[in-house]
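Escalated from tier 1: zinc ion holo job.
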Amino acid sequence: MNNFVFQNPTKLIFGEGQIARLAKELPRDKKILVTFGGGSVKANGVYDQVVEALKGFDYLEFWGIEPNPKVETLRKAVEICKAEGIGFLLAVGGGSTLDGTKLIAAAAVIEQDAWELVCNPKVYGGTLPFASVITLPATGSEMNRGAVISNVATGEKYAFYNTFPTFSILDPTTTFSLPPFQVACGLADTFVHVMEQYLTTTGISPLMDRWAEGVLQTVVEVAPKVRENQNDYDAMATYMLSATMGLNGFIAMGVPQDWATHMIGHEITALCGTTHGQTLVIVLPGVMNEMREQKSSKIVQFGERVWGITEGTTDERIDRTIAATEEFFRSLGLATRLSELGIGEDVVEEIVRRFRERGTLLGERANVDYAIVERVLRQRM
Ligand code: NZQ
Ligand code: ZN
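Tier 2 regenerated the structure:
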């Protein structure tokens, strides 16, 4: 096992009716900026609950953080923070609203432009504290330091790291209103987050392996229930907690991580606007197949423990494991091929060109170069 330091300070507040606790958790001595997406929270009653809890607080609202939050939008909120002396931020919505808020919070305390923070971690100079009411289980953003920010002008999409949210409120009833496509993408994103931290090599941490497999098995088990009835509180609660546990550091202690699927997926989103989880289920089976030798023992373990594949040669087991994984993604109602979304050769060439020019090396051994990325994507046409 590798050395590690683990500290996750986010206070998790979970369950029906917990939005009311904002009144207890938010600071009364600071001016608060409450950030929102495009309005889903008005339709599902979350906004009303937040406004009720915020009675007596000094706060402003900022609307319009879009899916795949754009730095162009976030800059406007940074200006508001600086002009209004904002001292705390509360994101209410999906991962995009929270990710955008993470960048706003850090950009509000520096002179440089917000995009510089994304391109160069050295620009980071601290942050305003922030918290969330999360309404879409997927990113784990509610309990991690990450954010993924898009730049429309340059067609880029990159990760940025701030500190952790002070607290996050997760009320499963807020997810009842999610569009089924977003639920499918959220389940897929959760599954692939675990895979990025798990599908490397065997024998490093049996405990992390079992924990990761536990989350994967739970997602597989709950997915049909969630898809059948989105008003099933227990199923949605299980899905919601799985998403948080999938990317809050608990399954990543002392183990290597891959993230090639995410890096390739981000390029598809940057160029085509494709929803994040949808990109991942297209790419992952290709990464598994291309890296089948390096990852062979782990793919076999995953196939056995998650899909119950115990027979055949190693190659046969790997083939069946990849097929079962793709089949699971299809059972969510998602496309697993680029051509199904009308994404063609030109996009593949552009992604490969970008990776070649940047000299990017992906994966747990930093050996996935542009040539491997090209093979992955061509398999997924
Ligand atoms: O904008 P509104 O009107 O709120 O609508 C949103 C949006 O249209 C809607 N929605 C959210 N909660 C809802 C709801 N609609 C009805 N009922 C609800 N309860 O869903 C749409 C998608 O929302 P978005 O926030 O974009 O989705 P998600 O949470 O999946 O976030 C995706 C972003 O997170 C990044 C992705 O790259 C993408 O930019 N990621 C962030 C990570 C992190 N912070 O650690 C890791 C992930 O790998 C991921 O890359
Ligand atoms: Zn993701």
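The chain is about 50% helix and 10% strand.
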